[in-house]
Amino acid sequence: MAQRPPESSRLRDRPYLIACAAGGVLLVVIVVVLVSFLVPSGAGEAPKAAPPARPAVAAPAVKIPPAILPADPAALPQSTTYTVLEGVPLDLGPPEPTDGSVIHPRREVVVYATPGGDPIARLGPQQLGDTWLPVIAQQPGWVQVLLPSRPNSSTGWVTDTALDRAVSPYLIRVHLRSLSMELFKGGQRLGNWTVGTGKQSAPTPAGRTFLLGSFSDTAQRYSPVILPLGTHSPTLDSFGGGPGTVAIHTWPTANVFGTRSSDGCIRVPKDALNQLTQVPLGTLVLIDEN
Question: Quick one: pLDDT band at residue 78, thresholds 50, 70, 90?
Answer without folding.
Answer: very high
